[in-house]
Amino acid sequence: TLAAANTFFNGTITNLGSLGVETFTPIINHPECAILGVGKIERRPVMNGDRVVGQDRIHLSLTFYHRIVDGAPAARFLKTLTQAIDASKAAGQTPPESWYRRRLALAYDS
Predict the structure, then answer these.
(1) What are the φ and ψ backbone dihedral angles of 107, each rounded to 5 degrees?
(2) pLDDT score, position 94
(3) Which terminus of the chain has a lower count of CB atoms within 10 Å, N or C?
(4) Pick from 67, 1, 3: which is nearest to 34 by CA?
């Protein structure tokens, strides 16, 4: 879960998905070192075994400052985030709005 992530740095979240934007590249706000862009949630056909089923997909874009953080910790953060979203969805829960808006910790594991 996100709570299990080690705090490495704080960033912000920007959501253009609510405006219908599918995907975009967010710009880092000084003095932060990362920003997570949340795009539109869309229903897409995916394979589930031998069947094609509809599944919600969301576009996430993480922009980060390479002088402060390497790509591997950023990738681990995105993996942790997607696992948390998948786990909440599998449990039939929808994270509250504040969950999306709060500052996120990036897992850094050297």
Answers:
(1) -70, 125
(2) 63
(3) C
(4) 67
**Complete edge-to-edge strand list for the sheet that includes strand 51-64:** 12-15, 34-48, 51-64
Structure confidence by residue, pLDDT tens digits, 1-44: 444 333 444 678 888 998 999 999 999 988 888 898 999 988 89
- Catalytic residue set: 66, 70
- DSSP type of residue 53: E
Instruction: Return d(Cα 19, Cα 74) in angstroms, integer.
Output: 26
pTM of the model: 0.71
Angstrom distances, CA of residue 51 to CA of 22, 86, 89 = 26, 20, 20
**In the block, which residue shows the tokens 């996430």?**
60
- Among 86, 62, 61, smallest CA distance to 8 is for 62
Q: What is the pLDDT of residue 95?
A: 57
